[in-house]
Amino acid sequence: MFDYLIVGAGFAGSVLAERLASEGNKKILIIDKREHIAGNAYDYYNNDGILIHKYGPHIFHTNSKEVFEYLGQFTPWRPYEHKVLGSVDGQLVPIPINLNTINQLYGLNLNSSEVEDFFASRAEKVAGVKTSEDVVVSKVGRELYEKFFRGYTRKMWDLDPSELDASVTARVPTRTNRDDRYFTDTYQAMPLHGYTQMFQKMLSHPNIKVMLNTDYKEIIDFIPYHNLIFTGPVDEYFNYCYGKLPYRSLEFKFETIDQEVFQPTGTVNYPNDQLYTRITDFKYLTGQKHPKTAVVYEFPKAEGDPYYPVPRPENAELYKKYQQLASSMTNTYFVGRLATYKYYNMDQVVAQALTTFKKIMQGQPETYINGQNILQS
């Protein structure tokens, strides 16, 4: 008899497995339908011996000391600040848009206060910012919106930014200084030996059993357990009874290049002409020493593994129906990006899992979603 059956061996499931096993002394079975642990953060050495991320680049950053120190129990960290360039008007310019971006793009020599005036002079008044287009146009105007955001967003989502929730482009700031780091979080680092090795250490507790290549539907009636933690798609759990929650997926094209590095920084975005959205050169991320490098091209698509919940009001309404169903379950916890239909960064999923663990240990009522006791929320 297992105390917990955990479906999904990504961040949400693995953190809860580790905490419940080591702190709660619970017996855990964690399963995954893929052939590996670590979820979308899975990395491995390709045939040329280069460490690559199978599901696209995963760059760790957080403002949470608790999350950083918790994961630090299972890996040494390598400091890494991610930088992104955008291919715009035949040039590679810093993203997010900052002082250097504007000066380079327009051949100017503005300072911080002058670039603030530059943005203000181009910004359009928007009554009630509702869409992704509104966010950008109200901050920096239509020309920069067209150059940097519209094409990229249309490729990424197969929707115009005017059809998407404001949260999509609100994730990308605009800066008036020369800070060209993609993230500004307090802690920015990569697991020194890769994500997979970090997960292996996390799941190495004697109370944890791991089963891979296993669909939970095949075993759920045969394995005795007290509580279920589900980190897969919430609509799948309920057999899509209200219909499918829409996601965007990605297709990845990997290449090994016979040179030390392929491009001047970790990631280059292509907002406009190409079919792919970005190219990532893995050796910047991993710090690996190797005479060759490996890159990945990302092509957004409608079908495939679910990566990005599509942030539109009708999808939020559909999710609420599933959330209501989940609230009627007992001894069942829905945790993580797919189970709560929300785009979380890795550190946010870890924080959510740690919060859920604390609530379980406090003996609070048995049904949670998104780390909250939904029977009382």
Automatic annotation (TrEMBL):
<dbReference type="Pfam" id="PF13450">
    <property type="entry name" value="NAD_binding_8"/>
</dbReference>
<comment type="similarity">
    <text>Belongs to the UDP-galactopyranose/dTDP-fucopyranose mutase family.</text>
</comment>
<keyword id="KW-0413">Isomerase</keyword>
<dbReference type="InterPro" id="IPR015899">
    <property type="entry name" value="UDP-GalPyranose_mutase_C"/>
</dbReference>
<dbReference type="InterPro" id="IPR004379">
    <property type="entry name" value="UDP-GALP_mutase"/>
</dbReference>
<dbReference type="GO" id="GO:0005829">
    <property type="term" value="C:cytosol"/>
</dbReference>
<keyword id="KW-0285">Flavoprotein</keyword>
<feature type="domain" description="UDP-galactopyranose mutase C-terminal">
    <location>
        <begin position="147"/>
        <end position="343"/>
    </location>
</feature>
<dbReference type="GO" id="GO:0008767">
    <property type="term" value="F:UDP-galactopyranose mutase activity"/>
</dbReference>
<dbReference type="GO" id="GO:0050660">
    <property type="term" value="F:flavin adenine dinucleotide binding"/>
</dbReference>
<dbReference type="Pfam" id="PF03275">
    <property type="entry name" value="GLF"/>
</dbReference>
<protein>
    <submittedName>
        <fullName>UDP-galactopyranose mutase</fullName>
    </submittedName>
</protein>
<keyword id="KW-0274">FAD</keyword>
